[in-house]
Amino acid sequence: MTKTAISQHQLAQLAARFSEAVARQDWTHALEAADSLVAALPGHAGVVYNKALVLKELGRGPERIATLREALKAAPDHANARFELASALMDAGDLAEAAKLFEAYLSQVPDDTDARLNLGQCLLRLDRPGDALEPLRAAHAGAPGLATAAALASALRDTGHLAAAKALLADLPSTPEAAALRLKILTQGARGRIALSAARL
């Protein structure tokens, strides 16, 4: 891409236009401003990454993925672009590549609970519950909640650790959402089901 001749003042105006559109959640105009910034600053990973975030808001998945690949090509160590690309691929169902990218991201940002949870969920969907246990245990330890408990309990169930899955689910709060989650996890799974009693719900 050929760099568009532009003054610092014009560049500042474009950046302001982009920021204002984002603040208004006017994603169409934000994308127009992002495209202008990309043309003015070709190969600038941060600008390309911001465009990808706008494409995400617009629901333009394939373009989002392609744009994030561009950002990583421009800056291979751009951790946020790697996380977003992994997330986009996960959304698109490309779980194997998503898992690899989440692993690479975690080598850069090892304490990111969201990445650990996403990695574990990818591995679960790839029928690799044993591999999912470590990241899901770390995710639940770092941010205990319904999402991490559900994923970890599923991995425990599918690796035959039924007592541990039951114990984890028993610690969930007494809410309708938690009850529905218990029912779903305890009655599903490729490696057998856990007998239920009303007291467990």
Automatic annotation (TrEMBL):
<keyword id="KW-0802">TPR repeat</keyword>
<dbReference type="InterPro" id="IPR052943">
    <property type="entry name" value="TMTC_O-mannosyl-trnsfr"/>
</dbReference>
<protein>
    <submittedName>
        <fullName>Tetratricopeptide repeat protein</fullName>
    </submittedName>
</protein>
<feature type="repeat" description="TPR">
    <location>
        <begin position="79"/>
        <end position="112"/>
    </location>
</feature>
<dbReference type="InterPro" id="IPR019734">
    <property type="entry name" value="TPR_rpt"/>
</dbReference>
<dbReference type="InterPro" id="IPR011990">
    <property type="entry name" value="TPR-like_helical_dom_sf"/>
</dbReference>
<dbReference type="Pfam" id="PF13432">
    <property type="entry name" value="TPR_16"/>
</dbReference>
